[in-house]
Design a protein that fits this description.
Chain lengths: 300, 161
């Protein structure tokens, strides 16, 4: 995990705490600990310290201040994308060369087959195969970003609500595009009325429109909260060592951190899977000809 | 921590779209293509195996059928041969019987003819003897009781002979 970083950071905290008035230390520690799960403008490099990431001057479009600076999370977003590109290309090359996939190529193929047979086809039918590239990219991208948070000096871009919001916006577009493409705009709009008597439309239409936004919103918050929660638990457990200022006490938190890290490893895969299957399910809901009103909202 | 950073949202969307386009071209299409090709290959080879098996079973069935037919034919041939043999045997026996019967008949005929001839010869001889006896009687004294005695003696002699 980010233990070394944490140690470094916590030492800084202690130093800062020592300079400040006693008693404010713990509050300070908390702020300092949170710093490690937050975005920042600097990148921590093992044994070399920090490097400042380039910052651009924010600009305004339609009243929104947009800062396109390369932050830590943007860096890891790109890092994950590049890593994924590399791994996927390696896997595809390997599988093309050997008729029977082995090793890493086989691992990737197992996941691809899993997404196709357990996620896409049951939820979207055979018509969902055309959205396979989108769902595969979603699954693997989120997976790699999640796992990068478990690497020392790494960070999860998905632990930032803006990243998950970006992914959710794309999911929102796909959830609308899929039914329009299969059933046409008319059917899609008819679906918004909920199939009730026209006198109830003034109530039904706003609810249905609200429903359109709650789905991706839930996707966004679920992924962000799960990834952040795990990091905060680990950071807090490590923080206990510095609260008690004892090596003996350190044994317990380190043991706990080990357990939580293993759990995090599982959660990283699980959340990537949940984001993908829910997106597929929401896309599939609108693609089926029948079955109105089944707004399955399940999650973690 | 919950503050939204529109810059990061934009970067995420841009990165995702580029990633999607790149991966679709270099990874997912080849991966899925290889996958479906392999699945198709497995399916067809399985079908072919099944077909071959069915064909083999059919051939086996045919073979069995032919074998049974051959067996039946040979049985029939054996039976026919036996029947022919029996018939021939009966015929031969019949023929043999007939010919032996003929031979016996012929032999009997011969015997009868011989007997007849013998009888005729005998009769001739008896006549001669009778004449001889008559001569003797004529030569001797012709008294009636002696004549009778002579004739009886002659006849007895004939019978004795």
């Amino acid at each position: 995990m980010m233990d070394e970083t944490l140690v470094q950071g916590s030492l800084d905290t202690l130093r800062a705490g020592a300079l400040q008035v006693e008693g404010h230390g713990e509050e300070n520690l908390f702020v300092e600990l949170l710093h490690h799960v937050q975005d920042s403008h600097e990148l921590e490099i093992p044994f070399l310290g920090h490097i400042e990431l380039p910052q651009f001057t924010p600009f305004e479009i339609a009243g929104l201040t947009i800062d396109m600076s390369i932050t830590k999370h943007v860096f890891f977003l790109w890092f994950a994308a590049l890593l994924l590109c590399l791994l996927a290309i390696v896997a595809a090359r390997k599988n093309r060369k050997h008729p029977v996939p082995t090793g890493f190529g086989n691992l990737v193929e197992v996941l691809v087959v899993f997404i196709r047979d357990q996620v896409v086809v049951p939820n979207m039918g055979s018509g969902g195969i055309r959205y396979m590239p989108y769902l595969l990219t979603t699954f693997f991208f989120i997976l790699v970003m999640n796992l990068l948070g478990l690497v020392p000096f790494g960070a999860s871009a998905t632990g930032n609500v803006s990243t998950t919001a970006g992914l959710a916006i794309i999911a929102f577009i796909m959830i609308q595009v899929a039914p329009i493409r299969t059933q046409g705009l008319g059917h899609y709009l008819a679906h918004l009325t909920g199939g009730v008597h026209w006198t109830l439309w003034p109530i039904m239409v706003p609810i249905e429109i609200l429903g359109l936004f709650t789905k991706p919103f839930a996707l966004c918050i679920r992924l962000f909260a799960n990834m952040t929660a795990g990091h905060i638990v680990i950071v807090s457990l490590i923080g206990l060592i510095f609260v008690f200022k004892s090596y003996i006490v350190a044994i317990a938190p380190v043991g706990f951190v080990l357990g939580i890290s293993l759990l995090e490893l599982f959660v990283a895969v699980l959340q990537a899977y949940i984001f993908t299957i829910l997106t597929a399910m929401f896309m599939g809901l609108g693609m089926q000809t029948e079955g109105h009103g089944e707004h399955v909202e399940s999650g973690h | 921590m919950l503050e939204i950073n529109p810059g990061l949202i934009l970067w995420t969307i841009v990165t995702f779209i580029i990633l999607l386009v790149v991966l679709r071209a270099v990874a997912w299409k080849p991966l899925l293509g290889a996958l479906t090709a392999r699945e198709e290959k497995i399916r067809t080879s399985l079908q072919r195996t099944e077909q071959a098996q069915q064909e083999a079973e059919k051939l086996l069935e045919e073979n069995k059928h032919q074998l049974a037919q051959a067996e039946e034919q040979s049985q029939r041939a054996i039976k026919e041969g036996r029947e022919t043999g029996e018939r021939l045997k009966a015929e031969i026996i019949e023929k043999a019987n007939a010919s032996s019967r003929d031979m016996i008949e012929q032999a009997k005929e011969e015997i009868r003819r011989e007997k007849d001839a013998a009888l005729i010869e005998l009769r001739g001889e008896v006549a001669d003897l009778a004449i001889m006896a008559a001569e003797k009687v004529l030569d001797a004294n012709l008294d009636a009781p002696k004549q009778r005695e002579l004739v009886e003696t002659a006849i007895r002699e004939i019978n004795k002979r």
